[in-house]
User: What shape does this take?
Amino acid sequence: KAGVTQTPRYLIKTRGQQVTLSCSPISGHRSVSWYQQTPGQGLQFLFEYFSETQRNKGNFPGRFSGRQFSNSRSEMNVSTLELGDSALYLCASSFSFRDRGFYEQYFGPGTRLTVT
Amino acid sequence: AQSVSQHNHHVILSEAASLELGCNYSYGGTVNLFWYVQYPGQHLQLLLKYFSGDPLVKGIKGFEAEFIKSKFSFNLRKPSVQWSDTAEYFCAVNAGKLIFGAGTRLAVHP
Assistant: This one.
């Protein structure tokens, strides 16, 4: 079974721009979560989508948003980029039931975003 | 508040030494616990998981972890480490989202 894939793998953007990252989950997984990884803050949860609905959200500003498509693929968008948004953005997919949350999560390789 | 605490940020061992990495969590709901590993240049991989049942769980590559409910702990162990175990290890609790510890960097010297 193919793993979680993320595109692009590397991205350089300028402050004020916006960016869209893409994630394709493992086949059959309907839950997709996004995390931000930085040296200072570690791994922090952004949001989780299940069946095209945001099911959970972390403590990030509204500039961070996401969506999920009917094929479970997900995108996250960051608008008005700031220098502090430079990070590794990880996508994770999981098998899940609607009312029981997710089981173990499987991570993609991440998108390395650099904001200059 | 929900949190995960990993006691050691950096650990250095020689090959064949035993390993124990500490993890304590704070979460009031049903506990699902995980250890993930991130090898240099690679993505996060699931090492082992605890959902219920036997509190001693075995994972890949000879790792095991013990869930001690009374101590809110989920420590990772390996009897004899190898150079290839050099990596960063993350403990996490499922609180509707994964809450990760800060990670422990393990360096194993030949």
About this structure: Chain B touches chain A at residues 32, 34, 36, 42-46, 49, 51, 90, 92, 94, 96-103 (CB under 8 Å). The longest strand of chain B covers residues 87-94. Chain B has no helices and twelve strands. Chain B has a mean pLDDT of 94.
